[in-house]
Amino acid sequence: MTRWPKPPEGSWTEHYPELGTGPISFEDSVSPEFYALERDAIFKRAWLNVGRVEQLPRGGSYVTKEIEVAGTSLIIVRGLDGEIRAFHNVCRHRGNKLVWNDFPREETSGTCRQFTCKYHGWRYGLEGELTFVQQEGEFFDLDRPATGLAPVHCDVWAGFVFVNLAPEPEQSLTEFLGPMVTALEGYPFDRMTERYVFHADNDSNWKLFADAFQEYYHVPSLHSQQIPGAVRTGAGFECAHFRLDGPHRLVSTGGARRWTLPPEYMYPIERATRSGLVGPWESPDIGEPPPGLNPGKIDPWGIDNFQIFPNLEILIYRGWYLMYRYWPTSPGTHRFEGMLCFQPATTVRERLEHEVAAVVFKEFALQDAGMLTGTQSALESAYANGIIGSFPVNDQEVLVRHFHHVVGEWVEAHRRRAAS
Amino acid sequence: MTAPLLPPAFAGLEPYAATWCLATEAERYARRQASTMPVLREFYDACFPRLEEAIAHCDAHPLDDLPDDVLRLLQLVYSLVMVSMSVEIFQQVKATDAADAELHRTGEPVP
């Protein structure tokens, strides 16, 4: 096993002394009371990524976004002026859900010149303004200019569209993202428009699922099949670099790339298609990477895994990237969104490389999803029965420790504000 | 005798075409999940030796303008990728320890 240098304090965890090294509680992932606090403390305060600008290619392009934890549905729309805006998806007349297609609870997307309510036919322009009221003369003192759609703060960074549900966000989007994340500016996310999109309803708390994607300690056990049986040793995996910045986290992996190993370290389908577990062996050149990529200067570098608070993850594999979002739907469930984003294939062979990466991704993500149902139910049992209250977390799991620490801090800050 | 679905050079794979030439990942995954390991192994054993040749055959055409029989050959290759997960990696139909988890591909490029 490669040994990567740790910080002078002797561990990544002790490099960030505010985290401590003791066992931690996961009651935050089973408690209905804590879940209710997260709603206001986190999901109505933090900037939340709801999509990419490529999903809104032209004036009139819109998507709707269900954010159950915040009890809202949003319309995100590009105006004819090119600006992207967000509104609560509520008709100002009698509160009907304004934009939906087949089923009111399902997200939709499309292009239009105006939004028309299905119920009584009120219409709104792309900037939220109320433009038409059926039998307007029947109303009393209707102030049309003051009856536009309720806006939501919306901003764009590097093509990622974010919203903030606070009446007045405490930080701008770039302040919130901080220097570690914004140093990724310049990465050609905009060129990676070939998307393989996944959705799942998982039976685990949103944080427990994120935990499984921010440490690699579980890989040799849960995902042992990632290494072909003939050469499987069960050896542990050590990450090359960890970094924290405010509420956000980064882990970088390093070591010999899979396809540079002897052939027996790959499955036959990987050798035949020149793609597999970590994606295509070769990707179109992306030019000089931005300074935020591989900030630990790991060589040979593998993957950068950015955990952007609260529920966005971006995994950069140099020439393509993966994006995950975890949307809480109840204390013990969440909706998972995953996207593999590639530069568009120009040949069948390239398209097949992408298909293989997307198929392999799903197989191993299913292992996480299946197992985490067990984590959720066992943790619920542990806390309900007062059996076990805290759990040891090692240095390879420093991001798990930090995530729950930050969530606790945000909830505590909210409690203090609410009390004062 | 029904008309062949695949390019003539791949006539030997015709017995699998009606079952496995499927346009979407959702269909390919569902077909795999509804199959037994002996069926998946037979398909894999018949198709894998022709994989390199099939990729080269498809790759000789522009991605956005594949003739129908070549498109079906590519769909067969996609199914082989799907089935290889069970045959090469897990030795069972569904990923080990995936329990009842589902993950739906809701967007993908065509073809």
Automatic annotation (TrEMBL), chain A:
It comes from Actinocorallia longicatena. PANTHER family: CHOLINE MONOOXYGENASE, CHLOROPLASTIC. This is Aromatic ring-hydroxylating dioxygenase subunit alpha. Gene3D superfamilies: Naphthalene 1,2-dioxygenase Alpha Subunit, Chain A, domain 1, Rieske [2Fe-2S] iron-sulphur domain. One of its GO terms (molecular function) is dioxygenase activity. The keyword Metal-binding applies. Keywords: 2Fe-2S, Dioxygenase, Iron, Iron-sulfur, Metal-binding, Oxidoreductase. SUPFAM superfamilies: Bet v1-like, ISP domain. Pfam families: Rieske, Ring_hydroxyl_A. The keyword Iron applies. InterPro entries: Rieske_2Fe-2S, Rieske_2Fe-2S_sf, Ring_hydroxy_dOase_asu_C_dom, Rng_hydr_dOase-A. Residues 47-163 form the Rieske domain. Its cofactor is Fe cation. The lineage of its organism: Bacteria, Bacillati, Actinomycetota, Actinomycetes, Streptosporangiales.
TrEMBL record, chain B:
It comes from the Bacteria. This is Xaa-Pro dipeptidase. It comes from Actinocorallia longicatena.
